[in-house]
Amino acid sequence: MMEAEAHICPLCSGASIVPYHSGQTRDYVHCRTCDLVFVPAAQHFPGKAQKTYYDLHDNRPDDPGYRRFLDRLFAPLVRRLAPNAQGLDFGCGPGPALSKMFEAEGHSVALFDPYYAPDISVLSASYDFITLSEVAEHLAQPGKELDGLWASLLPGGWLGIMTKRVRSQQAFKTWHYITDPTHIGFFSEATFHWLVGRWSALGTPATLVIAGDDVVLIRKG
């Protein structure tokens, strides 16, 4: 295990870091400030290798099974949107099925993905809703990236995040989610409460909705 004290939390920038679990190929440490569990940066999967790994995913927009999977995020979010809302699918991947689901309901969706839709100009716009479907666990700098998305969200807008959550340290040890080499950050419900508290303290109230076992919605204002 690497010295946990040498790490800084990539979400809250806290230094109160302790060992959490040691796997066969990498370590996991825990931030006692925001409750994030993360893989030390020195053990992250290389960028080019990440792209090769993502290319193995068969997430086709017309796949009914994949759409049912995405519906866990889509269903609770779409019913909270005003007509003709403008959205951003952050980390859309090679098969942006989620955007097509929202477009079928009359909304418009911009796409961003560092590998498959790398137009950074869309990150300068403002949106009524932003989605991250199975993206948060891949972020090397979740604090910086989530803060940027929060700033792009219009007052009254919604941030929808789908990522499996940490339940306990004991369950973590045998959790299939940590075996994916591209998964480097693991959020708990307490982590999202911390995040909402931090954003609210900045001046714009944030409201957390736990919409499912792996879905949270955060309203701005």
Plain-language structure description:
- It is a single chain.
- By secondary structure, the chain is α/β, with parallel strands linked by helices.
- It has one domain (4-220): Vaccinia Virus protein VP39 (Rossmann fold), CATH 3.40.50.
- The chain is built from six helices and ten strands, in the order βββααβαββαβαβαββ.
- It has helices at residues 47-54, 64-78, 97-103, 142-152, 169-172, 189-201, and strands at residues 17-22, 27-31, 37-38, 86-90, 108-112, 127-133, 153-162, 185-186, 206-212, 215-220.
- A six-stranded mixed sheet has the order 5-4-6-7-10-9, with helices on both faces. A four-stranded antiparallel sheet has the order 1-2-3-8, with no helix packed on it.
- A hairpin with a 2-residue loop joins strand 9 (206-212) and strand 10.
- The chain starts with 16 loop residues before the first strand and ends with a strand.
- The mean pLDDT is 93.
Summary keywords:
globular; 4-stranded antiparallel sheet; 6-stranded mixed sheet; Rossmann fold; alpha/beta; 221 residues
Indicate the low-confidence ranges by residue numbers.
none
The percent range for strand residues is 15-25%
- The chain-level mean pLDDT equals 93
N to C succession of SSEs: EEEHHEHEEHEHEHEE
Rounded radius of gyration (Å): 17 Å
Counting DSSP E segments of at least 2 residues, the number of strands comes to 10
The total tally of domains equals 1
CATH class: Alpha Beta
Report how far the terminal alpha carbons are from each other.
42 Å
CATH H-level superfamily title: Vaccinia Virus protein VP39
**Helix/strand/pairing class, anyone?**
alpha/beta
